[in-house]
């Protein structure tokens, strides 16, 4: 069993690496668009780039969600568990956060951060840097949440599985303490920029 769990953990890590890579690419694209905004017209500048940011985010969310079905099927196949493949509609996980809020207004927190800091006397460059960091973390986290939400949907639709948390290399102390946790909640417990995942295990194993 320990050999199987090791194999499953590696499989889960490779899957999450793909999701993380996709989210990182999209987050960088969001940041490039945000950097086109001029400091003297933050609101108008945001309105101009927001439709492009929305498209970047939705494409990445769809891609992350589309990985869920093959991932769960592959994990169960490693356990010699056969089942009819469960298909999700990846587009259902796009355009909204896991809490059901629209993505673009959520990312506006980066603009708000920059505006607040500029208003308090912080230099424009430093304020933009802070806003960029907020936007980048939010974008990547939202995309990874789409992948996790799709995996949870596949697990729930299939039934007969329990979920074990797999932490990423260099995980923070908050995640490390949850390594191997066996639970099924409405949402995967994570913090912003969390890169951890979970592995579906056939119930009873």
Name its key features.
mainly alpha, elongated
Structure description:
It is a single chain. With 205 residues, the protein is mainly α. It is built from seven helices and two strands. It has a two-stranded antiparallel sheet. α3 packs across α6 and α5 runs antiparallel to α6. The longest helix has 35 residues. It is elongated. The termini are close together. The mean pLDDT is 86.
How would you briefly describe this protein structure?
With 205 residues, the chain is mostly helical. The chain contains seven helices and two strands, in the order ααααααβαβ.
In this structure, how is the largest beta sheet organized? Answer: 2 strands, antiparallel
Structural class: mainly alpha
Rg over C-alpha atoms, rounded to the nearest angstrom: 19 Å
- Contiguous helical run count: 7
**Beta-strand percentage?**
5-15%
Task: Report the end-to-end length measured between terminal Cα atoms.
Answer: 9 Å
State the helical fraction.
55-70%
| Overall pLDDT confidence | 86
Parts with pLDDT < 50 across at least 5 consecutive residues: none
Please count the beta strands (DSSP E, at least 2 residues each). Answer: 2
Report strand order across the widest sheet. 1-2
Name the shape in a single word: elongated
**Order of SSEs:** HHHHHHEHE
């Amino acid at each position: 069993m320990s050999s199987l769990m090791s194999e499953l953990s590696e499989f889960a890590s490779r899957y999450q690496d793909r999701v993380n890579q996709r989210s990182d690419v999209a987050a960088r694209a969001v940041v490039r668009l945000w950097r086109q905004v001029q400091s003297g017209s933050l609101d108008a500048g945001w309105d101009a780039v927001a439709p492009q940011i929305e498209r970047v985010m939705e494409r990445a969310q769809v891609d992350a969600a589309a990985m869920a079905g093959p991932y769960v099927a592959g994990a169960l196949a490693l356990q010699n568990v056969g089942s009819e493949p469960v298909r999700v509609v990846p587009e259902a996980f796009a355009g909204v956060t896991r809490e059901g809020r629209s993505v673009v207004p959520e990312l506006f927190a980066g603009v708000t951060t920059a505006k607040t800091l500029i208003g308090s006397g912080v230099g424009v460059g430093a304020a933009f840097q802070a806003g960029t960091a907020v936007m980048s973390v939010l974008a990547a986290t939202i995309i990874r949440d789409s992948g996790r939400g799709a995996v949870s949907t596949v697990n729930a639709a299939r039934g007969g599985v329990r979920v074990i948390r797999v932490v990423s290399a260099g995980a923070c102390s908050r995640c490390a303490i949850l390594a191997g946790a066996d639970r099924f909640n409405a949402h995967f417990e994570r913090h912003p920029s969390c890169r951890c995942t979970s592995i579906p295990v056939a119930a009873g194993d």
